[in-house]
Input
Amino acid sequence: MSTKINGRPILAGIVEPYRDWCSGRLRASILKVIRPTRVGADNHGCEGPIGRPGPELRTPVFAPDLRARCLTPVPVTRARRVSTYGAGMRVVPGWALASAVAAPILLVGGWTLGAARQPGGFDQITGTISALAAVGATDRWIMTLGLAGLGLCHCVTAAGLRPLAPAGRALLALGGMGTLAVAAFPLPSGDGGSVPHTLAAAVAFGALALWPALAPPRAKPTTGYAGPTAGYLRRRAPWVALAVGLLLPVAWFVVEMAAGGERVGLAERVAAGAEALAPLLVAAGLRRGAGPPPAGRRD
Output
């Protein structure tokens, strides 16, 4: 049997047309992949040639990238929100709260231990706090250390109350420095007075009573999470009420001092104790009112 037709092998006559057909299909498939594409509504979100809908792929096409681009969802990223109000309301650090807690402990502990060390007892109703740190008092270092620690704590707390206005924080720090001056300039022995001690005490009592009136911030948070306390922080009424509450015992102490009353020691302790507790009240309120930041926040 002959294996040639018109001088060509029979097998070549079958294979060559099939090879040409396969080459044409492959070339068409390659053109579909490398041809410029676009994304349009008429393609149902898939890519096709520019100017017309994408071709319907009825035959397998080796274009994994094309199918991946049609089926893989594009990740959507959310821009991070940044607060311009400090870093949100949780801006009172732990060390500021610790110093606010230590302030009344140092004050009350100082006058309690100092009075217990005085021979023959010490009447805290009539005797002033400064008398426990006066020159000639027994173990005067106890009350001196308590006053110095109190003043230092006020300065540290003022540095940590970041949500508040700078004027209020500066006045609180001034009260702390006045308390340090009270410890640095003690009363002389006996019944004599000291002008530096009196001036330092006046500055300390006045500044520690008036600082809440200047504490509310004036600027509003513009973006980001500001915490639930941001609203009443800018209200002046609570801060003025706190300042008035601190001024009342100070006024009582001044009246007792001027009249030579028998309760001058009690009035001084009430005034000094209230002024030592006020920064703790504010710091604890800010920490508790801020709460945890919302999910996704990175401030």
About this structure: The radius of gyration is 41 Å.
